[in-house]
Amino acid sequence: MPEDNISGVVLTFFSTASSVGKTLIGVNMASELARQGYRVCLVDYDLQFGDVANYLHIQVERSVKDVLETMNSRPDVPLQDCLTQYRYGMISFDVVPAPEFLDEAYNISADDCRRLIEKLRLLYDYVIIDTTSMFSVLNLAMLDLSTIVTFLGVVDFIPTIKNMKIGNDTLRTLNYDTNKIRLVLNRSDAKTRISMEDVERLLGGEFYHILPNDFKAASESIVTGVPLVLGGSDSVLATEIRKLISRYTNRAYDEDDGLPVFDHGEENGRRKSGGWFSKIFS
Ligand SMILES: Nc1ncnc2c1ncn2[C@@H]1O[C@H](COP(=O)(O)OP(=O)(O)OP(=O)(O)O)[C@@H](O)[C@H]1O
Ligand SMILES: [Mg+2]
């Protein structure tokens, strides 16, 4: 069950290539944390091409555009009243979906997006942010305020790996706490001629966690709108996602029922110093 000292953790999913699994893994993280009883809000900051609502098969009644408008014009309205709920049986979490129309994304300011997260982190145990694959002003602001950034990569083509290297090197220059950025390899056993070890050597460090390739389980969950971790999937991918979460929440992973045993961890603290803003404006 939720504990006071772990409220307000911001988990951001970021990458420097598209289609590496940011949305799939983010959606499953939100679902598993909600299953464990935490108050969770999943925010889709892929403002132009967001997929969260599609992956969860939810009808968008109020997108991030509406939520921000209410936040700015009606501060008396509780934010939670503006959000969209995802529900599966007894499990539920709140969602801030991306705008319905692409052009609406142009009128959304990064500063408003940042202020929304600052407010949400006071209301939820976990705020999970899905992003795009670029060092945009919005993404840099999200990286700064995150507790943990999952920097996802896949080992498929040379350009993807080159971009992963640039992203990893750039993230290091932001002087975040060393534990903040978690380099996670997704689709590890997808057919490729490039070895993981070579990529780790190039990146100058090992992957924090490795998620297997499971096309069937991943695509089934998208087709049905039921995240892997909720649909009773016994796939290795679901298990590895749960293990990754247990490392983030600092709980021991219990293979039998998937519900971890609580162990106070130091990783759940609020944001650390350093980052893009302090680097640019110091
Ligand atoms: N571990 C995995 N095994 C098999 N397929 C996967 C895995 N992870 C993601 N996929 C598939 O890869 C595709 C892209 O995933 P996803 O949309 O989560 O990536 P993304 O990084 O959010 O992409 P974008 O940058 O376009 O937003 C989806 O079809 C998803 O099912
Ligand atoms: Mg995505």
From TrEMBL:
Gene3D superfamilies: P-loop containing nucleotide triphosphate hydrolases. SUPFAM superfamilies: P-loop containing nucleoside triphosphate hydrolases. One of its GO terms (molecular function) is ATP binding. Residues 12-217 form the CobQ/CobB/MinD/ParA nucleotide binding domain. One of its GO terms (biological process) is negative regulation of cell division. InterPro entries: CobQ/CobB/MinD/ParA_Nub-bd_dom, P-loop_NTPase, ParA/MinD_ATPase. GO terms for cellular component: cytoplasmic side of plasma membrane; cytosol. Coiled coil: none annotated. This is AAA family ATPase. It comes from Anaerovibrio slackiae.
